[in-house]
Structures are given as structure tokens and as C-alpha cells.
């Protein structure tokens, strides 16, 4: 079975199972956050990857690739902490990799979110400065800030089920 169809089957099963739980545990407004939040994270992930790919090439295209993608990361991550209302975790009954610890250790989660926002702002500045060495350093720092949160608050199943 392909990775994609596995995810679809799992999601369908979760939706069916979740309908009853959903009414009791989480309101539709919280549940409705999950899909758009995953889409926005994918945007951020794609943008960071595009910058990384640019570094691997010999010649960095600042204007068409690095600057706009750094802007996307900064703009999107500015709202990241709003995407996790209580009730939008696994109890929502739809497929999500968000772990319950987000709400149990929320102070720490918020701290990591803010740290990532700081790195995104720095990345944006470095993009505008068009300094290749600084870009390499900052892309690494940005990646570490993302990973720090994923290590604690995103289910390890994501890595098993998804390639990127
Ligand atoms: C404060 C915590 C936090 C930070 C910081 C963070 N993420 Fe995430 N990310 C999550 C959580 C939690 C999920 C799972 C969301 C879900 O499944 O509902 C996630 C999911 C994702 C996904 C998978 C989306 C999907 O379902 O296909 C990608 C890609 C991603 N993040 C990229 C990034 C990148 C790139 C950064 C840094 C620029 C970043 N994230 C920063 C917590 C974070």
C-alpha cells in the first residue's frame, strides 16, 4: 500500500470513529482548524525546502526564491500559536499529528513557537541582506527551531507516514 493511501484509509477510519467523540470532546470550530493548520505547515515546509535547495545549487536566486520564501515562513509562523485551540488535538477525531502534550505543557510549547518566530524574523533579514554564508547558518538555525517543537509536540508517526 502506498504511503498516500495508507494516510487516506487511516483518516477515513478516524473520521468515522471520531464522529461520536467529536460531539463530546471538541467543538466544530476547533476541529475545523486542523486541516488548514496542516496546509499552512506544509507551505512553511515547502518554503524552507526551497531555500535549502537554493543553497545546494551553486548560484543563489535571492529575488525569485530566497526572499519570497523567507517572507512566507515569517508571515505564516507569526500565526502558528493561534492554530492550536484546545480541542484540536487527537480528541478531535480527525487525523492530526498534534500531541496532547501541546496543551499539557503549553508554556513550553509557546516558548518553542516564539523561538521559531524569532528565527523566522532573522531568516527574513538574512534573505534581504543577500549574504550566502549567513543564509546557510540561519537556515540551519531555523531548521533546528522547527525540529525542537516537532520532537516534543508532533507525533513520530508523521515521519513514518510521510516522506518530507
Ligand atoms: C511550536 C511548535 C512547532 C513549530 C515551531 C513548528 N511546527 Fe511544524 N508542526 C507542529 C505540529 C504540532 C504539527 C502537527 C499538526 C497537525 O497534524 O495537526 C506540525 C506539522 C508540520 C508539518 C506537517 C504538515 C502536514 O500535515 O502535512 C510540516 C511540514 C511542518 N510542521 C513544518 C514546519 C517547519 C518547516 C517549521 C519551522 C519553520 C515548523 N513546522 C515549526 C508544531 C510546530
TrEMBL record:
Signal peptide span: 1-24
Protein name (Swiss-Prot/TrEMBL): Cytochrome c
Keywords: Electron transport, Heme, Iron, Metal-binding, Signal, Transport
InterPro entries: Cyt_c/b562 (IPR010980), Cyt_c_II (IPR002321), Cyt_c_prime (IPR012127)
Gene3D superfamilies with a match to the protein in the record: Cytochrome c/b562 (1.20.120.10)
The keyword Signal appears for this protein: yes
Transmembrane feature ranges: none
Keyword Nucleus carried by entry: no
Amino acid at each position: 500500500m502506498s504511503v498516500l493511501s495508507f494516510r487516506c484509509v487511516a483518516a477515513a477510519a478516524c473520521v468515522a470513529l471520531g464522529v461520536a467523540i467529536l460531539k463530546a470532546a471538541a467543538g466544530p470550530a476547533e476541529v475545523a482548524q486542523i486541516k488548514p493548520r496542516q496546509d499552512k505547515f506544509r507551505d512553511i515546509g515547502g518554503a524552507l525546502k526551497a531555500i535549502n535547495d537554493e543553497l545546494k545549487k551553486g548560484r543563489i536566486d535571492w529575488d525569485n526564491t530566497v526572499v519570497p520564501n523567507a517572507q512566507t515562513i515569517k508571515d505564516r509562523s507569526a500565526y502558528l500559536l493561534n492554530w492550536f485551540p484546545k480541542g484540536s488535538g487527537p480528541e478531535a477525531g480527525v487525523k492530526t499529528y498534534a500531541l496532547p502534550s501541546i496543551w499539557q505543557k503549553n508554556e513550553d510549547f509557546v516558548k518553542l513557537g516564539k523561538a521559531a518566530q524569532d528565527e523566522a524574523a532573522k531568516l527574513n533579514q538574512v534573505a534581504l541582506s543577500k549574504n550566502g554564508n549567513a543564509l546557510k547558518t540561519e537556515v540551519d538555525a531555523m531548521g533546528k527551531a522547527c525540529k525542537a517543537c516537532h520532537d516534543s509536540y508532533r507525533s513520530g508517526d508523521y515521519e513514518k507516514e510521510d516522506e518530507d
